[in-house]
Amino acid sequence: MSDKLKRVAIIGSGNWGSTIAKIVGNNIKKFGTFENEIKMYVYEEMIDGKKLTDIINQEHENKKYLPGHKLPDNVVACADVAESAKDADILLIVLPHQFIERTCSTMKDQIKRTAFAVSFSKGFYVNKDKKVELISAVINRQLDIPCYVLMGANIANEVAAGTFCEATVGSRNYEHAQLIKGLIQTDEFRIVIKPDTEVIEVLGALKNIVAVAAGFSDGLGFGDNTKAAVIRLGLKEMVKFCEEFFPGHHPQIFLESCGVADLVTTCYGGRNRRVAEAFVKTGKDIKTLEEEMLNGQKLQGPDAAAEVMEWLKSKGQTNKFPLFSAVHDICERRLEPKLLLEALRHHPEYW
Ligand SMILES: NC(=O)C1=CN([C@@H]2O[C@H](COP(=O)(O)OP(=O)(O)OC[C@H]3O[C@@H](n4cnc5c(N)ncnc54)[C@H](O)[C@@H]3O)[C@@H](O)[C@H]2O)C=CC1
Ligand SMILES: O=C(CO)COP(=O)(O)O
Questions:
Q1: Are 97 and 125 in contact (CB under 8 A)?
Q2: Where, by residue number, does NAD(+) bind (predicted)?
Q3: How far is the CA of 223 from the centre of ligand 1 (A)?
Q4: By the 8 A CB rule, do 212 and 306 touch?
Q5: Alpha carbons 26 and 300: distance in angstroms, whole number
Q6: Close Cβ partners of 83 (under 8 Å, ≥ 6 residues apart)
Q7: How many angstroms separate the alpha carbon of residue 207 from the centre of ligand 2?
Q8: CATH architecture of 2-195
Q9: Atom 35 in ligand 1: residue holding the nearest Cα
């Protein structure tokens, strides 16, 4: 009987990775429809002289990335990524997008041929030839298994605390989508399955760039109307990007949690917004602020802006996306933060 149960592994144990471990571990214990033990890959580090894996396995808490939340005892931390992935039927990949390519290359020889993956990572990947790929495509290329996505308005600490929210799963495989939903959905974390996988993922990456712009606006003291304009013009660019480069999706997809809802929550409550506000107020650079403010957590927005500019440059289309361009130029210190206003004022929306 137990041989037939599917085995789940979680690759990543940051703020969101640990939250997903909490949800999935509890669901598996409750429903018993998957193999009970879940290996969770932890990028090893020392905390007050103790290994983070030992802290998680002994105290059932990720004291660094999700303090204050108990992880179920069927979640077992493992510092070896290949060992974590071995024998898994379902790989939940929840790493900051900067680390996906390298981590996947380390585990690729251990992957079951019948396995599939779900990516929770928001961002793009630029390879050495400056070609831009979706993170799900990198996972698929490296591991040679299908990769679906889960994106939504999901500030991890709130999800871990159990306040109501929702997410969008992108999958065109009915059977796999139902397995993902069964594994992740709870009464407080509702899942909607949609087939527009690529656009769902792209929205998750692009909204982080708009959140950086929202943070700049807050740092400049512009108030709620300006921030609403940033959000609206940012959404317009997100929609345009999807229409130009991922045509054929259902237009209602922008109204799902992966679209407008994730954009709103990140522009108000996210790390990208917070650090961008501090960037304007303190004059420190993004890397310094990330280290000072996030205790090891990683920002995705400034890198995503650089990745999107590579993409747009290769298509000769930077001029159609002035907000994305301005965010990148401000992060790189080629543009004064206050000139964000010029990008808004002269937006193609008003031509
Ligand atoms: N935190 C949140 O509220 C949400 C995050 N996401 C997305 O989920 C993804 C993962 O985010 P989080 O779990 O929050 O991560 P995080 O921001 O907490 O990142 C830190 C994680 O990266 C690991 N790490 C550091 N250096 C590494 C290396 N060289 N190789 C591998 N791992 C390394 C750390 O050990 C830690 O587990 C991101 O793409 C993020 O955009 C999505 C929804 C919500
Ligand atoms: O993706 C997120 C919420 O859905 C988290 O956004 P931040 O990375 O800006 O905190």
A1: yes
A2: 12-17, 99, 156, 271, 298, 300
A3: 30
A4: no
A5: 28
A6: 39, 110
A7: 9
A8: 3-Layer(aba) Sandwich (3.40)
A9: 43
Query: Cα-atom radius of gyration of the chain, to the nearest Å?
Result: 20
Q: Which residues are catalytic?
A: 207
Question: How do 124-126 and 50-51 pair as beta strands?
Answer: unpaired
Relative to the CA of 273, which ligand 2 atom is closest? 9
Please name which ligand lies nearest the alpha carbon of 16.
1
The CA-based diameter of the chain, rounded to the nearest angstrom, is: 65
Pairwise CA distance, residues 106 & 336, whole Å: 41
**Per residue in 81-113, is it b (16+ CB within 10 Å) or e — as a string?**
beebbbebbbbbbbbbbeebbebbeebbebbbe
Looking from the CA of residue 122, the nearest atom of ligand 1 is 39
Q: Would you give the DSSP letter of residue 258?
A: I
Domain limits, the chain: 2-195, 199-350
272 annotated binding-site participant: yes
DSSP 6: B
Return the CATH architecture of domain 199-350. Answer: Orthogonal Bundle (1.10)
Reported as half-sphere exposure (CB side, CA atoms, 13 A), residue 21 has a value of 36
State the average pLDDT over residues 56-72: 98
User: What is the pLDDT confidence band of residue 3, given thresholds at 50, 70 and 90?
Assistant: low
Encode pLDDT of 215-224 as tens digits.
999 999 999 9
Pocket test for ligand 1, best of 19, 44, 65 (most atoms within 8 A of CB): 65
Q: CB atoms < 10 A from the CB of 289, how many?
A: 19
- Ligand at shortest distance from the CA of 275: 2
Task: Tell me the pLDDT of the chain averaged across its residues.
Answer: 97
Q: Give the integer Cα–Cα distance in Å for 40 and 92.
A: 9
User: How many angstroms is it from 263 CA to the middle of ligand 1?
Assistant: 18
pLDDT per residue as tens digits for the range 128-144: 888 899 999 999 999 99
Are 39 and 71 within 8 A, CB to CB?
no
Extract the tokens encoding 93: 């990949």
Could you identify the atom of ligand 1 that is nearest to the CA of residue 155?
Answer: 3
CA of 266 to the centre of ligand 2 (A): 5
Question: Which ligand has an atom closest to residue 156 CA?
Answer: 1
Q: With a 6 A CB cut-off, is 97 part of the ligand 1 pocket?
A: yes
